[in-house]
Amino acid sequence: MSTPRFLTLPPGVTPGHLETPQGTFAALEALPVSGVVERSPALLVPGLTGSKEDFLAVLQTLAHSGRRVVAIDLRGQYETPGPEEPGAYTCAALGADVDAVAQVVGGGESIHLVGHSFGGLVAREAVIDGRTKFTSFTLMSAGPAGIVGRRARDSRQIMEEVPDRGLEHVWHTGLEREALTGGVSDEILSFLHKRMLANSPTGLARMAEQVLTMRDRTDELREIEVPALVLFGEQDDGWPTESQVEMSVRLQAECVVVPGAAHSPAVEAPETTAAALIRFWNAAEARLLDTRSDLV
Q1: Residues 139, 115 contacting (CB under 8 angstroms)
Q2: d(C-alpha 64, C-alpha 111), whole Å
């Protein structure tokens, strides 16, 4: 569970909603406080038990690089409503949502896409399905296939217990203890509790099943030939760091290991993470310009 360290919106960051053919999505939008928007926009997709607030610590810095940056809640996640239909929460269905949001954010132009943890598996579907052209794609603390280790146990508890015992039970027997062990403030604890209970139970259980069973699509992703970045914390306790390094090799992608971070580098090392994203995005845009020049 990503745990934001603050909830106050930084200057230039505003809450709102994005209307798409796939539905309405709650969002946080960041724009430069000074200067103009002159670079490709970016879309940030959170993980299984997370939300758009997981990116609060990086939004302002990313926007200051001269771009619009949008973080969303997925369908059925926190402040984005979702149906009580399990089929709406497969990675493919959620990937179609990301396509729709990306087209709205980009206004038909290519954008950068970042997916954190389960959000990486969802965003990967959007890249592979080819409906939207992306300037770049970043897998942040996301592996090639189903999650393993301690976080797999957490996901299995959600999948097995939420349908019968409810969100409140899973909160008290799992995620609340994790938050208390981390020594979070009362304000953050209250937010995490509220966020957990706002999820669609059907959606959360199905998404947990998806993160456990997702097949490896690395080879298919490589065929898309979108500039890719694999970024994760040096102490990641989600997918093994070795598997993420191997995935970057298979993708012929850049690999960035963030010192001092674990599974949520945008929270745990925001400045380092933002700097790595900005450098990668700028390089991807430069390559895109060079390609277009060669075609003229």
Answers
A1: yes
A2: 16
Which tens digit of pLDDT belongs to each residue from 254-294? 999 999 999 999 999 999 999 999 999 999 999 888 766 55
pTM above 0.90, yes or no: yes
Strand order in the sheet with 254-258: 13-20, 23-30, 69-72, 42-45, 111-116, 134-140, 228-233, 254-258
Q: By the 8 A CB rule, do 45 and 126 touch?
A: no
Give the CA radius of gyration of the chain: 18
Nearest to 76 by CA among 58, 62, 90: 90
Of 279, 36, 87, 55, the closest CA to residue 200 belongs to 87
The predicted-structure confidence for 186-219, as pLDDT tens digits, reads as follows: 999 999 999 999 999 999 999 999 999 999 999 9
